[in-house]
Design a protein that fits this description.
- This protein has four helices and two strands, in the order ββαααα.
- By secondary structure, it is mainly alpha-helical.
- A two-stranded antiparallel ribbon has the order 1-2.
- A hairpin with a 2-residue loop joins strand 1 and strand 2.
- About 10% of the residues have low confidence.
């Protein structure tokens, strides 16, 4: 599957980050899309503006013509439909998965990067 869906009210939206949308987000924010999600510390959590910018970028592949203002309205509708800020973060992590930022390993939540070390002889 090349997208994930977000339900906001009675509407479902297909979400996926393309390379172009990712670069557009990075230019606006001045950091990588993965950097947006920090290390899980409260100080590292994305701002509301950042969250909606990533949502907006994620809508561009399949939901043509959605403006940034529309993305704010979709976020508000998501919250009104019993969603939360933390729930939106989870939704956007799913977007990153289907967009190729990282893969899920069998039996593990996320595939850990392989650390390569040079062995001296």
């Amino acid at each position: 599957m090349l997208y994930t869906t977000l339900k906001a009210g009675n509407q479902e939206y297909k979400l996926r980050l393309t390379a172009k949308a990712s670069v557009d987000i990075e230019r606006k924010l001045g950091k990588s899309v993965l950097g947006v999600f920090g290390d899980g510390n409260l100080e590292d959590m994305p701002t509301m503006e950042t969250l909606v910018l990533v949502l907006h970028g994620s809508l561009q592949a399949y939901e043509h013509g959605i403006s940034l203002d529309d993305a704010y309205a979709i976020y508000d509708k998501y919250i009104e439909s019993d969603g939360s800020y933390a729930g939106m973060l989870t939704e956007l992590v799913e977007v990153l998965k289907v967009s190729g930022f990282f893969k899920e390993a069998k039996g593990m939540e996320l595939e850990a990067p392989v650390k390569r070390t040079k062995v001296s002889k």
